[in-house]
Amino acid sequence: MQPIDRRSFLKKSLVSVTAVSLRGHQPLAAAAQTAAPNAPAVSSSPTPGIIDTNVNLFNWPFRALKYRDTQALVAKLKKHRVIEAWAGSFEALLAKDMNGVNARLAAECLEHGPGFLIPFGSINLAWPDWQEDVRRCHEVHQMPGIRIYPGYQPFDLDHPGMESLMRMIAERGLILQVVFGMEDLRVHHPIINVGPVTFAPLLKAVQSTPNAKVELLHFSGSSQGEDLSLFMTKTNTVMDISRLEGNGAVGRMIGTVQGLPSARVPVDRIVFGSHAPYFPVETAILKLIESPLDVQQLQAIMQSNARRLLPRA
Fold it and tell me: Which pairs with CB-CB distance under 8 Å and at least 24 residues apart come from 106-110?
């Protein structure tokens, strides 16, 4: 038997699983065709494209990423049938001038992806006058949501401003995206001390403002007790799949894997998020392929759940 390298194995596995298990799902089949362009084409049908709720623009502070150029990232996402991408800015992690960060993000989305790149501005609860940053994001830049990076930004979710932020988000009809990490702790730059992010205070803030729209980004799904299940009972709460790890992780989260405990999160609260360009977009697509999901579940995760949170005219 001839040895097979990891790249070849992944290419062949992706093509075969896509062709057999997801015949007719063109958004997912695109990943297989990209991995192995000479493979037999999977039959196509009119299926919804993907809304990617978790991408970032500009430069990752600690190393050069392959798709750091916005035009290249847009082309990559569209190649995999992504029809809309909610974009934050890597600059927000360490910047003190949040107004400049948000202005550059809005301009970049308008220049390179109008109608495709949807800018999500950032605020930092640790800096003064963050309320004005919320106002500018909403009124000046016409952004549909705000993204915060607790841990990188010097605050945790027990910050006294969280409940005020939640009320502002709800009053303005915005989406609050809470980022629970950006990379594995083991590869952090040694000079960076990223603080822990605790989940319970977020649950408390949501309970005080039950109509607020909140998305967990890059969340592992782990939390103490029943906090996550309680969080997901609120009207407008969702989480993306970018940090769900292990074989069949999406299926395990929603309870479609036989023999495992019941679902922690209903399928209508799961949305697609790739964490690109830090992660390849194909990684998130593979998570859908390897989990036991039917057509309705796939369509809900790929687009419907996100569209419910952010309708388009």
Answer: 106/141, 106/142, 106/143, 108/57, 108/58, 108/70, 109/57
Count CB-CB contacts under 10 A for residue 248.
16
Tens digits of residue pLDDT in 286-312: 999 999 999 999 999 999 999 999 998
> Residue 23 sits in which domain range?
1-47
| Domain shared by 30 and 129, yes or no | no
Q: Across 41-45, 63-67, 119-123, 259-263, which has the greatest mean pLDDT?
A: 119-123
Output the domain CATH number for residue 169. 3.20.20.140
Determine which helix (DSSP H) or strand (DSSP E) holds 214, and give its type and residue range.
strand 213-217
Specify whether 59 is located in the same domain as 22: no
Does residue 181 surpass a pLDDT of 60? yes
